[in-house]
Amino acid sequence: MTSIAEDLLLLLLDDESGKPLVDGVKLPRVLAGAVLVELALDDVVAVDTEGKQVRKGRIVIRTEARPADPILAEAVERLRSGRPVKPTVAIEKLQKGLQEKLLARVVEQGSVSEERGKILGVFPTKKWPASDSGHEQRVRGPIRAALIDGLTPDPRTAALIALLSAADAAPKVFPEADKRAVKKRAKDIAQGEWAAEAVRDAVASVNAAMMTAIAAGGAVAGSS
């Protein structure tokens, strides 16, 4: 089974152009958010909202078990290597090198191909058009059913929708649908009761942190 971050990455790559639907500040942080969300869904990490185990608002690791997925396992080790941190700090820690690893994975799986080129014959570029969109379409199906047809999503689908909502990307993934309706439905699902309270708290904290990190990264990029 692919990870939530892999599925999110495929959703955020345009099948034809091979270019990301969100900018270079958002994408790595959204993917880091997806890693944290999956760890929360698997009850590996949680955000201590009451300060019972660590300082209030910081991430606590709930198990000594190592995730089978190497990317998730590395994320846990990074979080374990220092003091408990807030989700904003965790996202910055986890986003380093993550996008490249996930891209290599979806290329290896055959979902996309990597195409290299140059702008003006000088500046190197990369794009990742779809090679086999079968898996992505299977991921899109339940998301479309929830966002456009109004069906109730399962927790994994709801988590993906919450991440898309935090990145303001749901309308970009379904450009043929009514933009305002999709955006509102995604936000409603993100705020709904689709998982256990602890998981929903963690996802809400991660998404808020992700938006803060994106805004901070955008400000830095704009000033440079």
From TrEMBL:
It is a peripheral membrane protein. It is found in: Golgi apparatus membrane. Coiled coil: none annotated. InterPro entries: GPP34-like (IPR008628), GPP34-like_sf (IPR038261). The keyword Membrane applies. It comes from the Bacteria. Pfam families: GPP34. One of its GO terms (molecular function) is phosphatidylinositol-4-phosphate binding. GO terms for cellular component: cytoplasm; endomembrane system. The keyword Plastid does not apply. This is Golgi phosphoprotein 3 (GPP34).
